[in-house]
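Many introductory courses stop at the sequence. We go one step further.
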Amino acid sequence: MSVQTTMSPEGWRPPACAALSRSLQEPLCGTAPRVRGWLLIEQPGPWGRDRLRQSRLDPVLGDALAARCADAGVRPVLIRTRQRRDVAAGRHVYLVRPGRADGWAERLLVREDRELLDLDLDLPPGVGERLDPTESLFLVCTHGKKDACCASFGRPVVTGLGHRDGRVWESTHVGGDRFAATVVCLPSGIYYGRVTAESAEHIVAEHDRGRVVLEHYRGRCTDDPVMQFAEHTVRAERSLLGLDDVIPLSAVPRPDGDTDVLVRHPDGTDLVRVRTTRAEPRLTACSAGVVDSPDRFEAAPPPVRRSGS
């Protein structure tokens, strides 16, 4: 399959990446990007394509902050609510270390933007006010200047969910334009894709009950994609939906190119042999006209080698 990436003289445009991904029935599992830490910065819109340099932050500060985040391996994300708030008296900032039992999120109020450069991006705990484990944050990507699909599919989700006492935020790019609308749950690090206004209500309710919604589940940003896929495979095989019911423990490459992933669950451990291939080139980000061949995962038969009953 060939995909054009630029508009022709006749005005032809490529299909939206999210619609194309749906039409190809591209699997969601194993598509969450790896993120070791998050820096969420409240910044009322509009947002430019380059979130830190084109979104009404001081561009010099944006340059310095982008460099510090890159060095620390932290993903900076701008956030806002539908209720536009004046940040002259200070902006809300969240530091997040994603994880299962050890994940946490802390909130602080930054009164001067230069204070953003003083934050310790090694993310030691205790910098801000720790959020209660039951107060998960939900980011919905609506970054239209980065990819039009994110705004088109994300805004109805934000409108449907509402503010929810400061737990739901619009966000800049979080990864996976073609899976819009994307929702990230923090501090668990769980990614969901192809979320609608109706399914978002169910996803948030189930997350608060400690359960995943497998239909929209992309994986956790704490795990490599091959481990995300193995986790999803065991969940589906054993009908396990608890947030921490299934934990990938290790991934060992095999001589034949497959990967053996050991996965723990309440009844023991299973081994999933994951085969990785490359999909045909396709549009993966419509606003940038990006064409890529994403990884495609499948479980080599049998899907799960059970070592627990």
